[in-house]
């Protein structure tokens, strides 16, 4: 459906320019002006392409609202996927020239047209497939991805804080008359709490 690039991709197509693009009932309709060369003859004609993505099929006919150098042309492209990296492409076309054309000339034109209309497909589709697969991992994109990840990691490391422990409950005042043995136990317990708190502070937890 990249008809604007047909002149770059398809031998014999001197120009192909879209003049209308619309969508109807889920189908894309593109109208284009073709200028082609065949056996030292030049033709200019107008084509309506109707693409149905759900069926992987594109049907084309003349735009009958405009006068073309061809009397008529109809056909279709159909893509049949055969795997993750392969497919089979079907092409059919019927074309009728204006006026009388000698049989041998018409036969030569037909053979040349079929060859030019189909041999470019594999070359260009493989090129597009490779560029699509390699796109996200080319040099510039990969460097940008690495730099972005570095920035995110640096930001998260700077802003990262461990959760704070709940505050220690306030210790009750020791009664003056508490027996010496009980006082020692309480003092030891307080010491253990302080050492535990200092150890946590040493790990950055407050």
Can you walk through the features of this model?
The radius of gyration is 38 Å and the shape is rod-shaped. The longest helix has 32 residues, at 103-134. It has 2 domains: 3-139, 2-Layer Sandwich (Alpha-D-Glucose-1,6-Bisphosphate, Chain A, domain 4), CATH 3.30.530; 162-206. It has 206 residues and is an alpha+beta fold. It is built from 4 helices and 6 strands. 39% of the residues lie in helices and 33% in strands. The chain has helices at 6-9, 103-134, 139-159, 180-202, and strands at residues 13-24, 27-38, 41-52, 57-62, 70-83, 86-97. A 6-stranded antiparallel β-sheet has the order 1-2-3-4-5-6. The two termini are 64 Å apart. The relative contact order is 0.07.
């Amino acid at each position: 459906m990249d008809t604007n690039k047909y002149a770059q991709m398809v031998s014999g197509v001197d120009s192909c320019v879209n003049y209308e693009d619309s969508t109807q009932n889920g189908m894309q309709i593109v109208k284009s002006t073709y200028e082609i060369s065949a056996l030292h003859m030049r033709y200019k004609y107008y084509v309506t392409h109707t693409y149905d993505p759900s069926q992987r099929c594109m049907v084309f006919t003349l735009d009958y609202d405009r006068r073309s150098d061809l009397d008529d042309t109809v056909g279709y492209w159909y893509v049949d996927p055969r795997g993750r990296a392969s497919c089979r492409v079907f092409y059919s076309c019927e074309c009728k020239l204006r006026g009388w054309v000698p049989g041998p000339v018409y036969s030569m034109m037909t053979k040349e047209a079929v060859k030019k209309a189909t041999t470019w497909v594999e070359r260009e589709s493989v090129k597009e497939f490779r560029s699509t697969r390699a796109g996200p991992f080319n040099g510039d994109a990969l460097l940008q991805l690495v730099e972005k990840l570095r920035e995110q990691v640096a930001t998260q490391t700077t802003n990262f804080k461990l959760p704070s422990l709940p505050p220690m409950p306030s210790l009750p005042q020791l009664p003056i008359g508490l027996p010496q043995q009980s006082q020692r136990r309480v003092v030891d317990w307080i010491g253990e709490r302080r050492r535990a708190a200092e150890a946590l502070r040493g790990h950055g937890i407050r």
